[in-house]
Amino acid sequence: QTVVTQEPSFSVSPGGTVTLTCGLSSGSVSTSYYPSWYQQTPGQAPRTLIYSTNTRSSGVPDRFSGSILGNKAALTITGAQADDESDYYCVLYMGSGFWVFGGGTKLTVL
Amino acid sequence: QLQLQESGPGLVKPSETLSLTCTVSGGSISSSSYYWGWIRQPPGKGLEWIGSIYYSGSTYYNPSLKSRVTISVDTSKNQFSLKLSSVTAADTAVYYCARHEVIAIDYWGQGTLVTVSS
């Protein structure tokens, strides 16, 4: 069974930089998985941040960036702000019309 | 601006079939190269992809739910639907409909809570 792994929680200081990762229980994440990232605040639908590894969705501030770091996809927030405190989910495309969400990372800004 | 809106019963009895509809406005559900999908989120938990239907009519389901899921489209009403059979309390969740491509989900519905309880 394919499991997409994310850190359950992370904290960052205001103005700081944090990198969240998205891995596979078996194998490495590459651009071929078209990693995408979504931000969700309580009670709201998710918002698309990054797609196709490193393309920012329309209106997303450039303090959000995506990349491949080692064998994982990564979402980096540079200059974290209070309203970045959210849950962050990655999605990987496994091929043949099959997508898998990671378990999500709860980011605290304090 | 494309908008998606879920509708359907908020309460379903165990062993029955959950049925939801997503109405698309501001664009055609027949637009090429797009998938129309369902995603759910149990209370306090993460997101789970349920399945999607391609504009061509091909369907793709999460293997863990495949035996219970049917997604269909009604182009005349610009709607697509989800049916999940034999539900249990574990199927209690907020259900989102969404438009996506291979590389990204670009539009989400607001979500609708479905509770499975007798």
Structural class of chain B: mainly beta
Distance between the termini of chain B: 39 Å
The counted number of beta strands of chain A is: 11
Uncertain runs of chain B are none
3D structure, described in words:
The complex is a heterodimer of chains A (110) and B (118). Chain A is mostly beta strands. Chain A has strands at residues 4-6, 9-12, 17-24, 36-40, 47-51, 55-56, 64-69, 72-78, 87-93, 99-101, 105-109. In chain A, strands 2, 4, 5, 6, 9, 10 and 11 form a seven-stranded mixed β-sheet that branches. A four-stranded antiparallel β-sheet of chain A has the order 1-3-8-7, with no helix packed on it. In chain A, strand 5 (47-51) and strand 6 form a beta hairpin. Chain A starts with a strand and ends with a strand. Chain B is mainly beta and 118 residues long. Chain B contains no helices and eleven strands. In chain B, strands 2, 4, 5, 6, 9, 10 and 11 form a seven-stranded mixed β-sheet that branches. Chain B has a four-stranded antiparallel β-sheet with strand order 1-3-8-7, with no helix packed on it. Chain B is globular and about 40 Å long. Chains A and B meet through strand 4, strand 5, strand 9 and strand 10 of A and strand 5 and strand 10 of B.
Secondary structure elements and pairings:
The complex is a heterodimer of chains A (110) and B (118).
Chain A: E1 4-6, E2 9-12, E3 17-24, E4 36-40, E5 47-51, E6 55-56, E7 64-69, E8 72-78, E9 87-93, E10 99-101, E11 105-109
Parallel strand pairs in A: 2-11
Antiparallel strand pairs in A: 1-3, 3-8, 4-5, 4-9, 5-6, 7-8, 9-10, 9-11
Chain B: E1 3-7, E2 11-12, E3 18-25, E4 35-41, E5 48-54, E6 59-61, E7 69-74, E8 79-84, E9 93-100, E10 105-108, E11 112-116
